[in-house]
Amino acid sequence: MLPAMKYCPRCGAEVVRSIPDNDNRERWVCRRCDTIHYQNPLVVVGCVAEQDGKVLLCKRAIEPRYGYWTVPAGFMELGESLAEGAARETLEEACAQIEIGHLFASVDVVHAGQVHLFFTGKVRGGFGVGSESLESKLFAEDEIPWDELAFKSGRYALEMYFRDRGENHGVHIHELRRARL
């Protein structure tokens, strides 16, 4: 399911859905400049950052899921690595400098056209409240507001983090096809 596209960003002409030569699926194709517009999943990166045996969560100040708790995460930017993106998102949302650990969870959010990747991390110093957060707080496993978590991918990351107790047991892979993230 491709998001709708009307005009070619390269030349401004209308685009049509068709299967290009030597391809196996429909793409948006410009009839004027012959550009094939590939639409690929967006990458979301996040970090389950720990301090004193507790993990850092943020209460969202933006939609979707305003007022719900989340692992600091967001869309990766061009020019940064996965780990750099996870560290940047944690800084933006929780004002926390972190030491990135290992990649430990991958969630394919097929219905949203996204891939969510989560790292472990250590909070180095304090933390605060970024512009996209209402509140930031450290939680022990038994204190996490499980029913108030914003996204299923973040819940999965927390569950795998506590299952592994922060140790490197490889990457846990999960797929979400419908419902909220």
Distance between the termini: 17 Å
| Count of strand segments | 11
Topology-level CATH name of the largest domain = Nucleoside Triphosphate Pyrophosphohydrolase
Major sheet attributes:
8 strands, mixed
CATH architecture tag of the largest domain: Alpha-Beta Complex
Secondary-structure content class: mainly beta
- Average pLDDT over all residues: 95
Rounded to an integer, what's the Rg over CA atoms? 19 Å
What is the share of helical residues? Answer: 10-25%
- The domain tally reads 2
> SSE order, as H and E?
EEEEEEEHEEEHE
Shape: elongated
- At the fourth level of CATH, the homologous superfamily of the largest domain is Nucleoside Triphosphate Pyrophosphohydrolase
Strand content: 35-45%
* Low-pLDDT residue spans: none
Descriptors:
mainly beta, Ubiquitin Ligase Nedd4, Chain: W, Nucleoside Triphosphate Pyrophosphohydrolase, 2 helices, eight-stranded mixed sheet, 181 residues
What this model shows, in words?
This protein has helices at 82-94, 152-164; strands spanning 15-18, 27-30, 36-37, 42-51, 54-60, 69-70, 73-75, 98-109, 114-123, 133-139, 172-176. The protein is mainly beta. It folds into 2 domains: 1-39, Ubiquitin Ligase Nedd4, Chain: W; 42-176, Alpha-Beta Complex (Nucleoside Triphosphate Pyrophosphohydrolase). A hairpin with a 2-residue loop joins strand 4 (42-51) and strand 5 (54-60).
